[in-house]
Specification:
By secondary structure, this protein is an all-beta fold. The protein has a domain of 127 residues: YVTN repeat-like/Quinoprotein amine dehydrogenase (Methylamine Dehydrogenase, Chain H), CATH 2.130.10.10. It is 2% helix and 46% strand. Strands 13-17-16-15-14 form a five-stranded mixed β-sheet, with no helix packed on it. The protein has a five-stranded mixed β-sheet with strand order 50-54-53-52-51, with no helix packed on it. A hairpin with a 2-residue loop joins β30 and β31. The longest helix is centred in the first third of the chain and has 15 residues. The radius of gyration is 28 Å and the shape is elongated. The relative contact order is 0.08. The N terminus is likely disordered. InterPro entries: WD40/YVTN_repeat-like_dom_sf, Xyloglucanase_GH74. This is Ycf48-like protein.
């Protein structure tokens, strides 16, 4: 099926028909309440953002979708290592992910529907797809699109023109759809109960008799027994054997338990994810339930369940991802890619440092990496300074390595201070920026004093050029030294300078909330830079700058990386597009061979064409 050939054009919808049981004001209030209750909160300490969807593809490939923009990840080794697929996606809210039996991906976002036939490396837009909550191909040779405002629509695979399904008219939110095979489908209609279709989704009718609880949230079916299950709001689980009515099946679940995720695994195991009450498993076709693992006391809201191997992949609203092994009775936490917080070149080797403190080395400009020691702690930056000295900063101390990153020595910091950046001079002096205590200076890395000539307590950015020019971007503006830190010249900029970068000619640039600025050397004059193709606004400004190819720069504009290509006039640029978006950059490096490297919260990216295109490279 060609992704670009599908048109999502909704035909006219009949007037809203409300159930006899529920009036419009009551239903609206309940719907508002449920979406407040189950909207993923901001992650507090979880390694992932809140997890909103997941899927398994052919060959055991796992996909995870999180609530952050571009939050799509893939693992080909059972969750041990993850690759971020969202760096090439538009910066739009994501709603759902589905994978066909052939491995085609379907991604629903706020603005459009996207499809990929190569595992997420490239995407095609399915025009007109905005407002779709979920989209997937069925086993009955139809395509289904669940719209937020008008329920279920269908199209034949060969036609691709969608129309409203017959029967129920979309007055109720459809929260889940279950494909039972051979064109048989069920839908969880919140406030209406379970709907059934026997013709691939062309027409729908309520189950009769229906579920006692009319607020279903999730559906599943056991392939071993054919029993269908429904998780409900404060009603636990209901089950329906073939040819029998729905019946309550919540023995072992907490009273008034909300079951918001269901999955049927191997050998008849059934899994239930609850709101704030953890993960449960049933081995007797859903008749009785047990907390998994036994004795688990942590409050946990399981939002996503996907059968995998002999267990299930479980994602939570607080940003944890687990692999539950039903045979061993164990739970293993799966962690995302280790963020890359710093790069350095020392003794001819290119090094990088991950957030967990692991050091890696590359001999080919960042295309391949091998492990080299560990700095330990929660690392914040890596810096090589003149004289072959290597430093790493953590949340607790400063680490020093004499052997290129194999072993490290801890250096205590001034009380109450955390260093966030470091730069050195040709004369051997060190300067360190902090997030609240200003700029510090040291002659040996052990004794540190506050630099009183530099205003501003928050040092956003610290850069050095040729070991002589030291520049700090602070909450007060520019602070620049031309003599290795002996004297300083300050230039005020409203809202301060977020990020600094020297271009290939050694010219200094700074980004602030008010624009892009050039700090002339040695004069110290601050002038605004003009960028063709970009119009500044209070909501659109450059937040990060990095050295690009030649005299160009790479910048972050909102949630997308762009190139700033030198213009004809002095101090001017032209905006250039890239394929990198939805990233939070923590570090950057321009290798002598011409490669550009960006370390991000979700992996390491490399460009060999001046920043026009970027590829992710995983660390071992």
């Amino acid at each position: 099926m060609a992704g670009g050939a599908i048109r999502l054009q909704k035909k006219s919808t009949r007037g809203s028909l409300l159930s006899r049981q529920w009036g419009a004001p009551f239903l609206a209030a309940v719907l508002s309440l449920v979406f407040v209750l189950f909207r993923p909160p901001a992650a507090e300490g979880g390694p992932w953002a809140p997890i909103i969807d997941a899927a398994a593809g052919p060959g055991g490939v796992l996909y995870v979708l999180t609530s952050e923009k571009g939050g799509l990840f893939v693992s080909e080794d059972g969750g041990r290592r993850w690759k971020n697929l969202g760096a090439g996606l538009p910066s739009s809210l994501l709603f759902s992910l589905d994978v066909s039996t052939g491995g085609r991906l379907f991604l629903a976002s706020f603005d459009e529907l996207l499809t990929s036939g190569n595992g997420g490396s490239a995407w095609k837009s399915m025009k007109g797809g905005g407002g779709v909550k979920r989209f997937f191909p069925t086993s009955g040779d139809t395509l289904l699109a669940v719209f937020w405002d008008s329920g279920i629509h269908w199209a034949s695979s060969g036609n691709g023109s969608f129309e409203k399904s017959g029967g129920e008219d979309g007055s109720f939110q459809v929260l889940d759809v279950l494909d039972e095979g051979h064109g048989r489908l069920r839908a969880a209609a919140f406030g209406r109960g379970a709907l059934f279709s026997g013709d691939g989704g062309r027409t729908w009718s309520p189950d009769d008799p229906g579920i006692e609880n009319v607020f279903p949230l999730a559906l599943a079916r056991s392939s071993a027994t054919g029993t269908v299950f429904a998780g409900t709001l404060e009603g636990g689980v209901f089950r329906k054997e073939e040819g029998s009515p729905w019946s309550r099946s919540s023995e072992g679940l907490p009273p008034f338990c909300t079951v918001q995720a269901l999955a049927a695994g191997e050998q008849g195991a059934l899994w239930a994810g609850t709101h704030k009450q953890g993960l449960f498993v049933s081995s007797d076709d859903g008749r009785t339930w047990n907390l998994f693992p036994a004795g688990m006391e942590k409050e946990m809201s399981v939002t996503v369940l996907v059968p995998f191997g002999k267990g299930v992949l479980a994602g939570t609203s607080s940003g944890e991802l687990y692999l539950a092994d039903g045979e061993k009775g164990t739970v293993t936490e799966l962690l995302p890619s280790d963020p890359v917080v710093g790069f350095a070149r020392i003794d001819g080797s290119l090094l990088c440092l991950s957030r967990s403190g692991k050091v890696y080395v590359s001999s080919d400009g960042g295309a391949g990496w091998t492990p080299r020691g560990s700095a330990g702690g929660k690392a914040l930056f890596l810096a090589a300074v003149p004289g072959g000295r290597l430093f790493a900063g953590t949340e607790k101390d400063l680490l020093f390595s004499r052997d290129g990153g194999f072993t490290w020595t801890s250096i205590p910091l001034p009380e109450g201070t955390v260093f966030t950046s470091l730069a050195g001079t040709a004369g051997g002096d060190l300067f360190a920026g902090s997030a609240g205590s200003g700029l510090f200076r040291s002659s040996d890395g052990y004794g540190w004093q506050r630099v009183g000539d530099v205003p501003g307590d928050l040092v956003h950015s610290l850069r050095s050029h040729n070991g002589t020019v030291i520049a700090a971007g602070t909450d007060a503006g520019f602070s620049v030294s031309l003599d290795g830190g002996l004297s300083w010249k300050n230039g005020d900029v409203i809202y301060g300078i977020f990020s600094l970068a020297f271009d290939g000619q050694g010219r200094l640039w700074g980004a602030s909330r008010t624009g892009l600025w050039h700090y002339s050397l040695p004069e110290g004059e601050i002038t605004g830079a003009q960028t063709a193709g970009f119009d500044w606004s209070p909501l659109a400004y450059f937040t990060d700058l990095f050295q690009g190819e030649g005299n160009g720069l790479v910048a972050l504009l909102g949630e997308k990386a762009v190139r700033l290509l030198p213009g004809k006039a002095a101090g001017s640029f032209t905006l250039g597009e890239t394929n990198l978006s939805n990233v939070r950059v923590l570090s950057s490096f321009r290798d002598a061979g011409g490669a550009l490297l960006l370390g991000t919260e979700r992996g390491l990216f490399r460009s060999t064409d001046g920043g026009a295109s970027w590829s992710e490279f995983g660390l071992p």
